Amino acid sequence: MNSHGGAPSRGKPATLRQVAELAGVSTATASKALNGRQQVSATTRQRVLDAADRLSFTPNSLAQAMLHGSSGTVGLLTHDLEGRFSIPILMGAEDAFGAGQTSVFLCDSREDAIRERHHIRALLGRRVDGLIVVGSQTNPRRSLGHDLPVPVVYVYAPSSDERDTSVIADNVAAGRLAVQHLVGIGRRRIAHIAGDPTYAAARDREAGIGAALADAGLTQVGPSRSGSWSEAWGRTGAHAVLEAGEPVDAIVCDSDQIARGALDLLRDRGVRVPGDIAVISFDNWGPFATGSRPQLTSIDFNFQQMGRRAAELIFAALAGEPAAGTQAIAPRLVIRGSTTVGA
Amino acid sequence: MNSHGGAPSRGKPATLRQVAELAGVSTATASKALNGRQQVSATTRQRVLDAADRLSFTPNSLAQAMLHGSSGTVGLLTHDLEGRFSIPILMGAEDAFGAGQTSVFLCDSREDAIRERHHIRALLGRRVDGLIVVGSQTNPRRSLGHDLPVPVVYVYAPSSDERDTSVIADNVAAGRLAVQHLVGIGRRRIAHIAGDPTYAAARDREAGIGAALADAGLTQVGPSRSGSWSEAWGRTGAHAVLEAGEPVDAIVCDSDQIARGALDLLRDRGVRVPGDIAVISFDNWGPFATGSRPQLTSIDFNFQQMGRRAAELIFAALAGEPAAGTQAIAPRLVIRGSTTVGA
DNA sequence: CTGTTAGCGCTTTCAG
DNA sequence: CTGAAAGCGCTAACAG
């Protein structure tokens, strides 16, 4: 359509042979010249480089992969791109790989086992060097099995099979961290609005909260109130906490969204945050955590780091150092206005 | 590490030759059998299929690609995976491709031109059949040029070069749609809290709003108030609208986040929504739009459809039917409680 | 119906 | 220092 100059706008890209011909050498020499091998004279090398440049030569990685035996490619299998978990994880992985020579194939299986199989076949056909499987829940997921020809790392949702390699968020530590912060700023009467109790995340956070309270010699105010992960539940839960009548000076919410709902209700009731009640939550989901008034102190699970770690584990396995078992990534406290006036 | 049975846990995957040997035929016959060619006897075919199965044979797409000349692969270049725009677009594209035999390479250039070049080189090296470039702003972006050997489609952020192919959101239509809905439910005194005025999105929406108001014989209440895309600005903007003193019965907010802020302030002031003032916004960002009280009526830009369209355009270009120019995808009204009591 | 041959683009011995 | 030849895994002619 719009051909001009030396660079071909369409049509097949230049091949090494064409470069070699233009430079007046053999393909072998051209290859050496382009790959920085020492067995080429300076002038020849320059001639080859010029030719390559003139033809906008880009080596065909497919051909290289066939020889070398590995494609420099990794498959990323996710279940919900919508989710705020998958994306940072994906970024971390892409980052860790992208620095090197590895490219990432993205596949979304939409929670569908059939589609998942289909994608895995396609990825193996493309001879990916490894597979990263990202779940959207913390609940363990079915293993892909051990007969795959490439290393597999499960992220966020661990594999239910201990022999697999998994990277997860440390929800217990997160629960502890939240309570420790509240205790650190002098709160003693701490309530908990939990998420959906069918999620391991909710149960683990509860365990962490309980442990940290015990460490501090405190007792939780009221039971952990379970619901869903929504703002609406945050309102309902906060309402229940206030209605219970027991004095409270802090609330741990299982997600930023729940905290938003709680904040909402507390303001309606004229409760000051953090003056009367401090609020802390989990996820540190940017727009939610920073859009509220006051902004939310939140526990960040370092998803991006989880993605990076997954990439590293793939590399390690490729290098012959597999690391079976589950690794937990430490969470991080991000302090904002819902727990401290200064911040 | 954990080898057993017939399927190799590691080591090179089985090749066609191995399958052929196991089945006692030539590679050519094996190839025909596996690819459903008619020139093979039923018994032979079955023998080959069995052998392939026993070796968990997966054809090497790289080799196939080298022959066929195309890799069945597309590059997706994005600038912000965080963004709520890129993800649905990406899903739409992955969907449209995934149905067929195409896999998607994901690359995030982090707004960095160097990194972008690097990624493009890598993708071209892998012989992608096409490139989809997703921007995070509606503002036009620099073209990648016309000397690339594969078709390129720009999404969300169009190319500044008219000769390129772009798919964008129709912000003018969105502005109209918002006003038409408000007028349809009987509102006459409409104000506008705009986003960041350096964004084409904000300017286009304003144009659409103005046009629809004119069509209805109405005049906007007060100026379009420009700010940022945040909840904080939504509060400030709503405050300004109320302070201006002119009666208002509806506010168009340039994003769901702005609308959340506005809702927040209106409630503080005892203004009922939608009773006293209806609120409508753009983006229809799930958790934000449905988490508020009342839920937000919002204009959805059909990002997923944009992604699909981009994929289709790549296919079309590959089939020799390029479509230069910019295509706008029609937005869609999603009605919720912030404009109607019934919904 | 089946097998032989050639070759996709590249790298790597191994001679010259 | 350079080139000829072999081969990665697969498919598409062509013979047989």
UniProtKB/TrEMBL annotation, chains A, B:
Extract the SUPFAM superfamilies matched here: lambda repressor-like DNA-binding domains, Periplasmic binding protein-like I
Any idea where the HTH lacI-type domain is?
Answer: 14-68
Q: Which domain of life is it from?
A: Bacteria
**Keyword field contains tRNA-binding:** no
User: Does the record's keyword annotation contain DNA-binding?
Assistant: yes
What InterPro entries does the entry give?
HTH_LacI, LacI/GalR-like_sensor, Lambda_DNA-bd_dom_sf, Peripla_BP_I
Instruction: Name the UniProt key words of this record, in alphabetical order.
Output: DNA-binding, Transcription, Transcription regulation
Q: Which CDD domains match?
A: HTH_LacI, PBP1_sucrose_transcription_regulator
Q: Which GO terms describe its molecular function?
A: DNA binding
Q: What Pfam families does this protein's entry cite?
A: LacI (PF00356), Peripla_BP_3 (PF13377)
UniProt-listed PANTHER family:
HTH-TYPE TRANSCRIPTIONAL REGULATOR GALS, LACI-RELATED TRANSCRIPTIONAL REPRESSOR
In its UniProt entry, what is this protein called? Answer: LacI family DNA-binding transcriptional regulator
Natural source organism: Actinotalea lenta
